[in-house]
């Protein structure tokens, strides 16, 4: 699985918003600077996040962006889906839409299991968890495996 730059930037921007108290909007420029995200790219990402109801914007000299709902109610999966669509694709199709035959028949089960595992992590971790540094214990336990940190 590959996490796109767009998804990474979107998560970082929402985590940055969660780090503010929410009473004052944060400008796109400030978000971009805080997370070292190209400003023009971030503007497009913020449009996607606004369209999906993850952020709201306010115009004017004191305008900017805030989270549309509490950070503990926004998962990493919500943010990734807002900017990239479904979490796992195989050849630009959802695993459940694929058909295999012959010796590859059970490969479909592998792709569906992959999607289930990705969802199990990304739907469990909220923006608040990341902003607060409190990753859920069932996710942290995955980090205890030394192989998790290695690229074979």
UniProtKB/TrEMBL annotation:
A Gene Ontology cellular-component term: cytosol
Classification lineage: Bacteria, Bacillati, Actinomycetota, Actinomycetes, Micrococcales
GO molecular function terms noted in the UniProt entry: DNA binding; DNA-binding transcription factor activity
Coiled coil start-end: none
Keywords: DNA-binding
Pfam families to which the protein is assigned, alphabetical: Rrf2 (PF02082)
Gene3D superfamilies, A to Z: Winged helix-like DNA-binding domain superfamily/Winged helix DNA-binding domain
Xref: PANTHER family: HTH-TYPE TRANSCRIPTIONAL REGULATOR ISCR, WINGED HELIX-TURN-HELIX TRANSCRIPTIONAL REGULATOR, RRF2 FAMILY
InterPro entries tied to this protein: TR_Rrf2-type_CS (IPR030489), Tscrpt_reg_Rrf2 (IPR000944), WH-like_DNA-bd_sf (IPR036388), WH_DNA-bd_sf (IPR036390)
Name of the encoding gene: cymR
UniProt organism field: Isoptericola dokdonensis DS-3
Protein name: HTH-type transcriptional regulator CymR
Classification via NCBIfam families: rrf2_super
């Amino acid at each position: 699985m590959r996490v796109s730059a767009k998804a990474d930037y979107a998560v970082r921007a929402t985590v940055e918003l969660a780090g503010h108290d929410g009473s004052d909007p944060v400008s796109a420029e400030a978000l971009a600077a805080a997370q070292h995200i190209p400003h023009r790219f971030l503007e497009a990402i913020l449009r996607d996040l606004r369209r999906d109801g993850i952020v709201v914007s306010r115009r004017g000299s004191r305008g900017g962006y805030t989270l549309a709902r509490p950070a503990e109610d926004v998962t990493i999966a919500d943010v990734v889906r807002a900017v990239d669509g479904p979490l796992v694709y195989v050849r630009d199709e959802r695993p459940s839409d694929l058909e295999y035959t012959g010796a590859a028949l059970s490969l479909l089960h592998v792709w569906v299991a992959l999607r289930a595992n990705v969802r199990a992590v990304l739907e469990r971790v909220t923006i608040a968890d990341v902003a607060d540094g409190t990753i859920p214990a069932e996710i942290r336990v995955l980090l205890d495996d030394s192989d998790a940190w290695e690229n074979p």
